[in-house]
Each structure stands twice: as structure tokens, then as C-alpha cells.
Amino acid sequence: MTKKIQWPLHLMILPALLLILVYSYGPMFGIVIAFQKFIPARGLGGSAWVGWDNFQYVMAMPDSLRVLRNTVFIAVMKMAANLVVPITIALLLNEVRKEAFKRSFQTLVYLPHFLSWILLGGILIDVLSPSVGIVNQFLGTFGVEPIYFLGDRSWFPFVLVGTDTWKEFGYNTIVYLAAITGINPALYEAAIVDGANRWKQTLHITLPGMAPIIVLLSVLSLGNVLNAGFDQVFNLYSPQVYETGDIIDTFVYRLGLVDAQYSVATAVGLFKSVVSLAFILISYLLAYRLANYRIF
Amino acid sequence: MVEPYSFGRRLFVGFNYAFLTALSFLCLFPIVHVLAVSFSSNAAAAGGFVKLWPVGFTTASYEYVLMQGEFLDALLVTLQRVGIGVTVNMFLTILVAYPLSKEASAFKSRTAYAWIFVVTILFNGGLIPVYMTVKYTGLLDSIWALVLPGAVPVFNVILLLNFFRNLPREMEEAAFMDGAGQWTTMWRIFVPLSLPALATITLFATVNHWNSWFDGLIFMNRPEHYPLQSYLQTVVVQQDLSDIASQDLDLLAEINDRTFKAAQIFLGALPILLVYPFLQRYFVKGIVLGSVKE
């Protein structure tokens, strides 16, 4: 019986399979242009093979090390902030007894997550502007000189981390809050009987209770160590802050689609994909070992 | 849990409420501020008099936006994209999730298929090869360039197949007993029972298509084919390098520009702001479903 009813299952998968073969696996073959001196008019077959030349060229570029450093620095800071801030806020929110307050808080802080970096970019450019921005107006009342947050090299990476945390902490808070809700209430009752105050309860019950999800999410975020957030950086940066704000993805975009250096851009992209894949595989392995996590 | 409320505890609770209130205000503040700017007169916006409420209320900038042919063209492209894109996404999500939700004993190739799909989230060809694939398949400048490369949302497939798996097996067996085939079982049993999950995933897909901009920017050669967010990228975000405090020369031009941009930002966010209060509880379920299973 099972034999007879299997072919419709293959048929169901077929359209999606064809599409990902073309649009996800197809580009994987395109990676060969990283090892060619690719000339679009000649195509993949006609372009000359150059081996590792493109990679050597990139390594000799003065910008490369800087871009790599920026990417890791920004990504790691974001990973840390996106761990610490939501956990802290979930703990604070857990102390709130009024359900209505809790719900409206979640509704409000969760909103920026749903707006694109285009819209938020537009909003932040306005709000942070040195001439008309309300943030600088506010700081001005304390006598602070206007700060060009998005145009100042030393400020820019921290503005990226700050605004990313601002956008995403609501989303992450909900996950941690769900984990807290899942903790067995009997544990708290026992702790109260033993004379533990709220702080002691948080320290010895809530935090250990959240540990599995904290471990899981921090381990899974490892895969993002070279993802500093293309959408955000692309919409907030300008040539003035390339030195501290340029990341691998924006670098690849400019090399490939602006300067038309297809082979070099693909080589940089390949480097990023391979390193990211290694980090993702390590993180899934760790997540499986530490938190017994499986994708499905 | 009855606890005596000590002084320290009451102090903490007070601070906690104040802090969390301030935080939620902080999330909303920039959005409300820009909304207020969009409804303010040029002079008030330029002088920096606008805080959270419009000063010199006017809808002039909105009238100006809606007179722009480009804005309306882009909106139309986005609506078309959301319509086609979400339909394709949902069809394929269901069609893939159903077979993959079977036990390996009932569908032998299941694991192989599952890996073929999952690999696409782990590794991809990168910007240039993807661009060339879209070009070689003749999609440049067509709405399908915005639909087909992302036609199979693998993350949503995983969400739905986990949901399918938790449905009672007995219903499926009863359907087979009654002579239903796989297609009938999928459409008449699994899909109707999964409406909450399907609603969540539809919302994910809709927001995703509404917010996408980069594919529009690179796959569309002609600006009149840009979807709304790509169009907004070119008019709202591209940085004005003259925005330095000391340069007051072309201030007047910048003022008009400011309320004009604010109005476009708000219109670009409007659909999400409208549906958000009603739908966010679904999203909450979606996240929790996606991240803390078991």
C-alpha cells in the first residue's frame, strides 16, 4: 500500500524542487567565476581559468583586512547586545504583574521589527541628523555640540549596534519570556517556603530555567559572525564612514554591481559563504550536543 | 504566591514600571516624531519645533507624494508582487511541507528531499552568481524576478511541517481508509486543520514581500519597475552628504525635502501599522513556534 501512494508525494515536491534547483543550486555552479577571469560576453565556458589569482588579489587589497575587521567587530557586538538586552528585559517584564501592561509593552517594542531598514533608515537619518534631528536638539539642551552620528567614523559602528538592538530587542524578548513562562511554578513555591526573596528566585530558578534557550540561541547566532547586517549598513552608511562601517556584504555589492569586478566580488562572497557555513555547522553541532536541538 | 511587599520591593516595582514605560516610549518615539514632521508645515519642520505633534498641520506633503507618478507606479508593482508572491509562497510551502511531514517509513525519499531544501539555507552562491542566474533565465525587469528566486520559503516550510506532524495520525489513516488519496488528504484534512499556522505563515510571507527592496533594486533595470521599498530606497535613504550642521545654504530646499520624505516613509509603513495591532499575536505564536519547540 505504501508503494502505491508514494508517487503523489514526489509530484507535490516537484515544482518547488525545480525552482530551488534553478535559483538556489544554479548559482552554486556560478561560483566557478571566482576562479576565472570572468568576461560576461564569453560566459562561464569561454572565460579564462586563473585559479586562486582573484583570492590573492583580494588579500593584497588594502581594504580587505579592514572590511573583515569591521564585519566581525560589528557582528560580535550585535550578537552580545542581542543576547544581554532581551534577557534583561524579559526578566524585568516577568516581574510585572499587570497583564494589560505586559501585553501593551510587547506590542509596542515589537513594532520596529516589522518595518524594513528602508523605512527605519529614513527615520533614523532624520532623527539623528546634526542639523534638524531631534536627538541632537535634545542633546543640545544640555549644551552638547551636534554629533553627526551617521557621518562620524568613530560613532558609526556603535550607532549600528544601538539601532539594531533597538529594532530587534522586542522580538527576542518574547522568545525569552516564553521560556520563563514554561518554568514549573512549583519551583517558585518551594523557593518561597525556603525563604528565597525575588532576587534569589531570579538567580536560582528563573535564570537556570532559561539556560537551555539562552545556550541554544547564542550558539545558533554563531553562524552570523560574518553577517553584520547588509540591509542596515547599506541604508545608513556613506563614503565618509567606509573606514569603520564597510562590511563584507556592502564591499561585495560595490565590487560586483558597481565596479563590475564580477570575479573578485564572487571570490570575496565565496570566502564569506564558506566561513559562514563552517560556523553554522559548528553551531548546529554544538546546539545538538548542548541543547539537543534538531532542525526538524 | 502571597508575599509581603517590603519597601525595597515597592521601590523596585515602581522603577521597573517607569523603566519599561520609558523603553516602550523609546521604540515608538522616532516613528511618531517622523509622522508628526510629515504633517507639519515646512517652516515648523525646518525650525525644529516639531516634537510628537504636528505644528502648523498640513497634508501638503501627502498631496505632493500622491501626485508623483513614480510613487503610485511603485505601489502598484508592490501590490502585484505581494499578490503573486504570497500565493506562490503559500502553494509551495504546503506542497513541500505535506510530504516532508510524513514519517520516513511512509515516504522513503523524505530525508533526502529535506536535506536538499535545508542546504539552501546553509549555503548560497552569493550575489553575483544569483544575479547571473536571474539574468540567464530571462527574468530581469519582470515581476517574476521578485517572486521565483524566493519562491520556496524553507523556514516557513519547517514551521508548517512541524505543525502538520503534531496533527493526530488517526485522521490521516481514517481518510486513507475512506479511499482518499494523498491530494485529498492534504487539501481536505491537513490544510483546514492548520489554519492558525497557515495564517501566521501567510503574514510572514506578506510582510517579507512588502518589505523587500534589494532584489527590486538589482533585478529591475528600469526605475518604473521598482517596487515601493526599492523606490523609497532611492528617494528617502540615499544619504544627503550636504547634511552637515554648518551648511545652511540650501536649507530651504532641505526643508521641503524633509516633510516630503517623512510623508513617504509613513505611507510605506502604513499597511504594516494598520494590520499590526490585530495580527501581532499571530506573529508572537509564530516566533515561539519557530524557536522553542519541544
Automatic annotation (TrEMBL), chain A:
<feature type="transmembrane region" description="Helical">
    <location>
        <begin position="205"/>
        <end position="226"/>
    </location>
</feature>
<keyword id="KW-0812">Transmembrane</keyword>
<keyword id="KW-0813">Transport</keyword>
<dbReference type="InterPro" id="IPR050809">
    <property type="entry name" value="UgpAE/MalFG_permease"/>
</dbReference>
<feature type="domain" description="ABC transmembrane type-1">
    <location>
        <begin position="68"/>
        <end position="283"/>
    </location>
</feature>
<keyword id="KW-1003">Cell membrane</keyword>
<keyword id="KW-1133">Transmembrane helix</keyword>
<dbReference type="GO" id="GO:0055085">
    <property type="term" value="P:transmembrane transport"/>
</dbReference>
<feature type="transmembrane region" description="Helical">
    <location>
        <begin position="262"/>
        <end position="287"/>
    </location>
</feature>
<keyword id="KW-0472">Membrane</keyword>
<feature type="transmembrane region" description="Helical">
    <location>
        <begin position="72"/>
        <end position="93"/>
    </location>
</feature>
<dbReference type="Pfam" id="PF00528">
    <property type="entry name" value="BPD_transp_1"/>
</dbReference>
<dbReference type="InterPro" id="IPR035906">
    <property type="entry name" value="MetI-like_sf"/>
</dbReference>
<feature type="transmembrane region" description="Helical">
    <location>
        <begin position="12"/>
        <end position="35"/>
    </location>
</feature>
<dbReference type="GO" id="GO:0005886">
    <property type="term" value="C:plasma membrane"/>
</dbReference>
<feature type="transmembrane region" description="Helical">
    <location>
        <begin position="114"/>
        <end position="135"/>
    </location>
</feature>
<comment type="similarity">
    <text>Belongs to the binding-protein-dependent transport system permease family.</text>
</comment>
<dbReference type="InterPro" id="IPR000515">
    <property type="entry name" value="MetI-like"/>
</dbReference>
<protein>
    <submittedName>
        <fullName>Sugar ABC transporter permease</fullName>
    </submittedName>
</protein>
<feature type="transmembrane region" description="Helical">
    <location>
        <begin position="174"/>
        <end position="193"/>
    </location>
</feature>
Automatic annotation (TrEMBL), chain B:
<feature type="transmembrane region" description="Helical">
    <location>
        <begin position="12"/>
        <end position="36"/>
    </location>
</feature>
<dbReference type="InterPro" id="IPR035906">
    <property type="entry name" value="MetI-like_sf"/>
</dbReference>
<dbReference type="GO" id="GO:0055085">
    <property type="term" value="P:transmembrane transport"/>
</dbReference>
<feature type="transmembrane region" description="Helical">
    <location>
        <begin position="185"/>
        <end position="207"/>
    </location>
</feature>
<protein>
    <submittedName>
        <fullName>Carbohydrate ABC transporter permease</fullName>
    </submittedName>
</protein>
<feature type="transmembrane region" description="Helical">
    <location>
        <begin position="112"/>
        <end position="131"/>
    </location>
</feature>
<feature type="transmembrane region" description="Helical">
    <location>
        <begin position="43"/>
        <end position="62"/>
    </location>
</feature>
<dbReference type="InterPro" id="IPR000515">
    <property type="entry name" value="MetI-like"/>
</dbReference>
<feature type="transmembrane region" description="Helical">
    <location>
        <begin position="143"/>
        <end position="164"/>
    </location>
</feature>
<keyword id="KW-0472">Membrane</keyword>
<keyword id="KW-1133">Transmembrane helix</keyword>
<feature type="transmembrane region" description="Helical">
    <location>
        <begin position="82"/>
        <end position="100"/>
    </location>
</feature>
<keyword id="KW-0813">Transport</keyword>
<feature type="transmembrane region" description="Helical">
    <location>
        <begin position="262"/>
        <end position="279"/>
    </location>
</feature>
<dbReference type="GO" id="GO:0005886">
    <property type="term" value="C:plasma membrane"/>
</dbReference>
<keyword id="KW-1003">Cell membrane</keyword>
<comment type="similarity">
    <text>Belongs to the binding-protein-dependent transport system permease family.</text>
</comment>
<keyword id="KW-0812">Transmembrane</keyword>
<feature type="domain" description="ABC transmembrane type-1">
    <location>
        <begin position="75"/>
        <end position="276"/>
    </location>
</feature>
<dbReference type="Pfam" id="PF00528">
    <property type="entry name" value="BPD_transp_1"/>
</dbReference>
